[in-house]
Design goal:
The complex is a heterodimer. Chain A is built from no helices and 11 strands. Chain A has strands spanning 4-7, 10-13, 19-25, 31-37, 43-51, 54-57, 64-66, 76-78, 87-94, 103-104, 108-112. In chain A, strands 2, 4, 5, 6, 9, 10 and 11 form a 7-stranded mixed sheet that branches. By secondary structure, chain B is mainly beta. Helices cover 0% and strands 53% of the residues of chain B. The mean pLDDT of chain B is 93. Classes of the chains: A mainly beta, B mainly beta.
Chain lengths: 113, 112
Amino acid sequence: DGGITQSPKYLFRKEGQNVTLSCEQNLNHDAMYWYRQDPGQGLRLIYYSQIVNDFQKGDIAEGYSVSREKKESFPLTVTSAQKNPTAFYLCASSIESGIIEQFFGPGTRLTVL
Amino acid sequence: QKEVEQNSGPLSVPEGAIASLNCTYSDRGSQSFFWYRQYSGKSPELIMSIYSNGDKEDGRFTAQLNKASQYVSLLIRDSQPSDSATYLCAVNGSGGSYIPTFGRGTSLIVHP
């Protein structure tokens, strides 16, 4: 079955630690995205990538980093510089950069202890 | 700053009624419009896309677009309790920008 997987589903982090959220897709989509969702809020774009080895900052990139070494994978690292990282993180993909119907993974809920 | 506005709700309708969800957007050059359904604790699921003025129907769902008024809506006919969710409106930018801007969503409650 084609789709987007994210792991882990739940993640707990101590203050000062970096954590990496996994996002994998087997849809052969070129474009991938990371969003953050806080309670009662819409989706805010963190980073996006149109093609392997290329990515751009979104609206709230500070304190986050990404890589796109493979078409299928777009991991997100939440660094200790992110002051309020507790949120629901969503990865999405679209078939190509000009097509913006996005498909979402199941999400990772990150909690800072 | 491109904005997409939705009434946060909750919108409460009885089972079998028509639910009407509304969205306005600020970027007059926007070309593509989407409705996502998000159940509590889950990720958004694309349910409708619309690109031209008028209505687009898919089963019980109808999307309506009025670019002159910068307004897009979603009608759900014969609402079911399983339709209870948050509905997110997403609008892409103009000038070739393909990154959508999301509204905060409207919570819909369908009561038996």
